[in-house]
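hey so i finally got around to running both of the ones u sent me last week. sorry it took forever, my laptop kept dying halfway thru and i had to restart like 3 times lol. anyway pasting them below in the order u listed, first the sequence line then the structure token line for each. didnt double check formatting much so if smth looks off just lmk and ill redo it

first one:
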Amino acid sequence: MSQQVVTRFAPSPTGYLHIGGARTALFNWLFARGRGGRFLLRIEDTDRARSTPEATQAILDGLAWLGLDHDGEAISQFARAPRHAEVAHQLLAQGKAYKCFSTQEEIETFRETARAEGRSTLFQSPWREATPDQHPDGVPHVIRIKAPRDGVTVIADRVQGNVTIRNDQLDDMVLLRGDGTPVYMLAVAVDDHDMGVTHVIRGDDHLNNAARQMMIYQAMGWPLPVYAHIPLIHGPDGKKLSKRHGALGVEEYQRLGYPAAGMRNYLVRLGWSHGDDEFFDDAQARAWFDLEGIGKSPARLDFRKLENLCGQHIAATDDAALLHELREFLVATGQPPLNDMQVTLFSKAMYCLKERAKTFPELLDKAAFILASRPIAPDEKAIALLDSVSRGILKELTPQLQNATWTRDGIEALATQFAEDHEMKFGKLAGPLRAALAGRTSTPSVFDMMLALGRDETIARLTDAACERA
């Protein structure tokens, strides 16, 4: 029986969940979920000065919005410091690590001399082979791992291919600092091993770290995970993503009104491909996602493509699910919640609102007729359509709607006949109807609005508009 796949996402809680981190989490989630595996979350909160509970919550909220559920409790790396130290002392006892008493001044002197003589500045501690009886008493020290001095280390990477690093480029990395606290490299290796992580999928800015973390695995006799280092995301200008490119935190994308399904679809396509497929749902993404489809070159953020995919997902999403996410968007952006009547109207009208809306603000804009309440305040363009002639037309049409069959065919047949009887094109009638029902000139079909609003509200709005004085 093959080993169960276990992946992890390990963010540092020093800020929001940025878009690159979100994609890394998504790749790990898809790889695990598509293989019946486990997706774990570890909060790398060892930087106590910069780690905050607020940042941790922002990460959890971002993952929740994206729909990336993790198995088990989130693990705090800081809380596991005693275990990290235990491994360092185990390596010390096995002669695979050593106590180094060199001071910072001595290390800097070594490097200055090496630079002057044209040698490698990689620090070589004089304490590497010292025996315990040679150790000074009561002097601060660090614990360093014994790095291999010759040969090469090969990172067998599923994205980058085999990456070879000469061992004489690896220093005797510090495992425990002078105050006994573990370093990041040790913590990551121990945590990944103890959590049973089989596949480490992360940004390629961690590629060099793999060689150093492998030293710990090999010294402890642990089986190595599969490594897959994915290229970073660049901005539309091809430069490394930064604040100048605008929205970075996942919560900003939520507040901009992108649906989570569209965001997932876009992010998975950002650096990974499955043939020519662009639009796909979660089930397809889980079934198709593999490490072989990840490209080696940085992906570029493309907001036009993001909006296009989001529009397709809004159109394809079940009405009730879309309404639920719309209400969450209103909460996230601090807007008033929908009242019961508006919820009912949205449910009836969602079929016509979601066509060609790329974001929730666009969908809300199309739903202006639902959000408005009587008396409808028309905008400047709508006022121009409600002249005395148009109001007269509405006054004549309104009583006929009292007895119309309240179906699309029934209303459309009545309105079309009314226009013919008055020898006008239907467009001449549609303008005033839009202005009366929504207070604006750009709306869904007048028949869709009438059906959603119902007979009583439709007639009330038309009556109001017909009675307005110029």
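and the second one:
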Amino acid sequence: MITKQETIQQIIRTDITNGFVKPGQKLASIRMQSQRFNCSLNTIIRVYQELEMQHLIYSRPKSGYFVVAEEALLPLLQTKRIDFASAAPDPASMPQADFRQCLNKAMELFEASIFTYPDPQGLLSLRQEIVKLFQQQQVFPSAQQVFIFSGAQQALHLLSGMPFPNGKTNILVEQPTYWGMLEALKTQRNTVIGIERTPDGIDWVTLERYFQSNMIKFFYTIPRFHNPLGTSYTPEEKQRLAELAKANDVYIVEDDYLADLETYSKADPIHAYNGASHVIYLRSFSKVMLPGLRIAAATVPTSFIPLLQRHKQAADLSTSVLSQGVLEIYMKSGMYSHHAKRMKSVYDCRMKHLRETAQRLLPKDCFYTTQRAGGIFASIRLPDSIHTEDLVKRLENRGVDVLATDKHFLSTFPKLNLLRLSIIRTDEQEIEEGIRIIAEELERAQYTSSSPKPFFWL
């Protein structure tokens, strides 16, 4: 839930950026604002202090608060775009003061470690906290099985290049999939095989054949809130994946990057389905915390520990102690769970509004597939006759940024004509306006094409 203080702050900020309060003009007094918003004086004081930290206003002793000079406001006064393309959190949604406090505390608590090369596997105290976090997802490793990486990208790169206990060499990936994984694979010499994943799931007959006959070292999958599709596997599908992997001695690299945003209490990861012996469970913190901290964690089967320790140490000696310290303090203090709960509520509301708006505003002859709420991504499939780059450009010219998904496919795999939508940097009003514009452009495209109508995947 967005707090009253945050709501008041956004209203005053909008007053400034829309020019209702001019540069150099004095803001209403704290007492007047408290009467306007029916809140305490302390609430307005905190709002003004936050806006001052954002360099939107400044205080004059005994005179009050004033809007900063026009030059400083210029970036805010420019036309705001509707950003369906970004996958990084909005800085305005991050509790930066809390992060700064944790950083200062980490400097104090981990001062000695800064001058050494710590365990390449990660600080033991942080790994113990990660174990507690994983247990909430029905994943029960020991601290010795947990590795801390310099971001999920490093984990994917190392896993792609190192040998696995099954002695196999080929890597299987969903198509489409996370583009960062495909970039990591480009730097390796292993054979990469793609298997199509649609909103209806995966071709189980083909998957089983690949597992049995194609020397698959591991299968990389995003079972929850897929990027870019936005869809999730059912519990039955996750159990089937775990059983197939174990039966065929194929490992699964489970990228559970949005586990913190799950709204369905019974949505366990693949690792929870008797898959501990053949599942590497990977968690990122970039969508809930600051991407710049570059922290991710994984639990691996015991047989992987010595080899992965060597590869991790060879890659970077150790992950940043300060980043690890900040995350540990943030988790131990309860700030992490509180912030994750808040962001889950915010993103859940946005995704529900996106689905409702799409069903109401997109062309009536579109076909929809709906599922439980949650996540940050949705996708639109376009007829092959529509040139995706042209549509993206037309939307860009109308102030709406979306993402074409070409880089989410292997170069050798047939590409679907997809647009990915992200709600991570939008609000409900922007979602409404953005979908309306997309609907108009899709409808315009239908009049110039005799191809089948687009499908909306959500």
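quick thing i noticed on the 2nd:
The chain has 16 helices and 17 strands.
anyway thats it, ttyl
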